Amino acid sequence: MTTPARASAPFGRVLCAMVTPFTEAGDLDLDGAQALAERLVAEGCDGLVLSGTTGESPTTTDGEKAALVRAVREAVGARASIVAGVGTSDTRHTVELALAAEKAGADGLLVVTPYYSRPPQEAVEAHFLEIADASALPLVLYDIPGRTGTRIEPATMLRLAGHPRIVGVKDCSYDLLGVQKVLARTELAYYAGCDEQVLALYAIGGAGCVSTVANVVPRQFRAILEAFDAGSTAEAARLQQRAIPLVESMMAAGLPGTVTAKGLLGRLGLPSGPVRPPLRPADGETVDGLLSDYLDLTGQE
């Protein structure tokens, strides 16, 4: 069977957009973060993305972000890559966070498009280039216009791909046509950032996924990619479709994925803790529904 040309996966294929555990008092729970990270790696994650959207980066301090990288690196060692979310709406602040993450032991940086100010494409490009020049770490560009208000247009992505330290993209653009245009002309490693598109993007040459739902079911997402790699495309499709009820309840039912992931992790007795305001916790009925979908997917009773 002929498979599509596929870029290398510089940080592994199955990455989890890990929640940031907090204590019940709302403080950073480094012990919980280490325990969760160890579980995720043991259950099949090649890499962990810290302080991204799911990791509540807007409400953690610079010091907490660095401390989280250090703690997780201590826990997982060289068994998994660590990609640190450092993106902000301020180029100078983003550079500072990038250098701090590098010092703390990250393997790569996740850099989101500057938000709120809605810069034009030439400013978006300059922002990413300044960060790539400031640190020795490779960058994953985070294209999520639904949250930032600004797309990294395919033409901009093609130009950015020429920088030796811009190596990947976390894609939440919902534009498979644009993605394929970039895949065909660059060696950028595209990671699906939308859990319902994991198999679709992988099948057209993506590198893997950065999954929020993997906080609770990492094995299931690894199984999708492994089935496809083995040439069992029908099985890969079956596994992707089987995960959709949980994906939908966690990611498309009106609550942020951070809220649903922490609610379900807490019900399962795994490290999570509360969300920080302005986010609010999921109610009991919502968590009951999440647990039901989780049990259906995992075959547990």
TrEMBL record:
For the protein in the UniProt heading, the enzyme class is lyase
Q: What is the organism lineage in this UniProt record?
A: Bacteria, Bacillati, Actinomycetota, Actinomycetes, Kitasatosporales
Functionally, this protein is described as follows:
Catalyzes the condensation of (S)-aspartate-beta-semialdehyde [(S)-ASA] and pyruvate to 4-hydroxy-tetrahydrodipicolinate (HTPA).
| Keyword Amino-acid biosynthesis listed | yes
Compartment(s) of residence: Cytoplasm
UniProt lists the family membership as follows: Belongs to the DapA family.
Catalytic function, reaction form:
L-aspartate 4-semialdehyde + pyruvate = (2S,4S)-4-hydroxy-2,3,4,5-tetrahydrodipicolinate + H2O + H(+)
The family database entries (Pfam families) matched by this protein are listed as:
DHDPS (PF00701)
Q: Which pathway or pathways does this protein act in?
A: Amino-acid biosynthesis; L-lysine biosynthesis via DAP pathway; (S)-tetrahydrodipicolinate from L-aspartate: step 3/4
Q: What is this protein called?
A: 4-hydroxy-tetrahydrodipicolinate synthase
InterPro entries (UniProt xref) = Aldolase_TIM (IPR013785), DapA (IPR005263), DapA-like (IPR002220), Schiff_base-form_aldolases_AS (IPR020625), Schiff_base-form_aldolases_CS (IPR020624)
| Quaternary state and interactors | Homotetramer; dimer of dimers.
Per UniProt, pyruvate binds at T54, V210
**Record keywords:** Amino-acid biosynthesis, Cytoplasm, Diaminopimelate biosynthesis, Lyase, Lysine biosynthesis, Schiff base
Residues annotated as catalytic: Y142 (proton donor/acceptor), K170 (schiff-base intermediate with substrate)
Quote the EC number.
Answer: 4.3.3.7
The feature of type site (Part of a proton relay during catalysis) is located at T53, Y116
Question: HAMAP family from the xrefs?
Answer: DapA
What organism is recorded for this protein?
Streptomyces lannensis
Q: Does the keyword Hydrolase apply?
A: no
